[in-house]
Amino acid sequence: MSTDASTMPVRAMLVLGTRPEAIKLAPLARAMAAGTQFEPVVVTTGQHREMLHQMLGMLGIDVRIALDVMRSRQRLSDLTARLVRELGEVLRAQRPDLVVVQGDTTTALAGALAAFYEKIPVAHVEAGLRTGVMDNPFPEELNRTLIGRIARWHFAPTATAARHLTDEGVAEEQVFTTGNTVIDNLLWVLAEGTGSSVFRTAAKRILVTLHRRENQGERMRGMGRALTRLAARGDVEIVLPLHKSPAVRDVLLPELEGHRGITLVEPLGYLDFAATLAECDLVLTDSGGIQEEAPSLSKPALVLRTTTERPEAVEAGAARLIGTDPEAIVSSAEQLLDDPVEYRKMASAGNPFGDGRAAARILAQLAEDFAADVPVGLTASGPYSTA
Ligand code: UD1
Ligand code: UDP
């Protein structure tokens, strides 16, 4: 149903459950709350607990409804079932004009699916990223692809992501290239300037994060060994904020705890993480968001994965996809630590992910569509037929 924008704000339900969703939806939540055209109804699913809660206040996200679905060592099927059921209840009670989901998490997929079941149109932020390998990243590649079948608006961060969607048959008028909201947030946070870096020494500073499901187990153990070899050089300081996942901690703690040159810390709040990233020399990560942030701060990123849905940074020369083999990790890192020419080449490659105005573009498009005479439906061509 369309809403008369001159009299009533559009009720937009923002569904988020994990750390990166909070970071990447925060600019939308803040912009909606600051204006009069939208009423943001933020629902946190609690897919993450500590790692989500530590973000919300500092990012200016005002939560309306908080679910608490997280269980320790949760299985994907249980998590998905709980999310769809509980979000369905929330949607039936709230009846928002649209649901906004972000990225490729289980929360995002469940939010889109529950909205579809309730015949509420879905806006997908960070749409169209693809590795082309359905089980890598697992299960995120499938999640994001499925949301691409459900969404009414596809907000693609880059032209490449937009093209993936139109190649899959999504109508061009439903796809919008906006930049990534992560850059909006990073610029906002750095302007606040209140975070503090974890690095303590003048050694070469390496910031590491590891958490992906497809890397857990033996592969992650090998990555841990590569880090101890780098630390053994004696001229580096490695900082690793440990993901809360027990599957990550089971492997990395025995491998890295107490090792000289390696500092393990609890997950950092975003202000401190941004400050730590700004102070590092080199990033080693399997994270999606950090692949986008590092080039914005001129930090070379080595991506410890076999695929990436963010090839733009690799193509620009700001990141390298080096895989998960410990030898390759050590030699690629050492090349950058020891060769200033190679280092400068990567550090100066630039950021292909946006200009910090993605949220404004997304809201402008939604406002235009809700203000139009044509009712907003589940598809661009008209309302969903209930006949
Ligand atoms: C999820 C996303 C992944 C994203 C990552 C961000 C899915 C399928 N995966 O993966 O795309 O990159 O979040 O970090 O949605 N846990 C805690 N406390 C917390 C958070 C998690 O104890 O604050 C535990 C959970 O109980 C669970 C494990 O960590 O057992 C993994 O969490 P889960 O959300 O299932 O997957 P992630 O690996 O975090
Ligand atoms: N991040 C953070 N504190 C940390 C580690 C990461 O704030 O200790 C931020 C980081 O800046 C990025 C986001 O979390 O914006 C990435 O989250 P994560 O790696 O968990 O998920 P992904 O991006 O891989 O989905």
TrEMBL record:
Pfam families: Epimerase_2. Transmembrane segments: none annotated. It comes from the Bacteria. Keywords: Isomerase. Its EC number is 5.1.3.14. InterPro entries: UDP_GlcNAc_Epimerase_2_dom, WecB-like. Residues 32-366 form the UDP-N-acetylglucosamine 2-epimerase domain. Coiled coil: none annotated. Belongs to the UDP-N-acetylglucosamine 2-epimerase family. This is UDP-N-acetylglucosamine 2-epimerase (non-hydrolyzing). It comes from Streptomyces coacervatus. The lineage of its organism: Bacteria, Bacillati, Actinomycetota, Actinomycetes, Kitasatosporales.
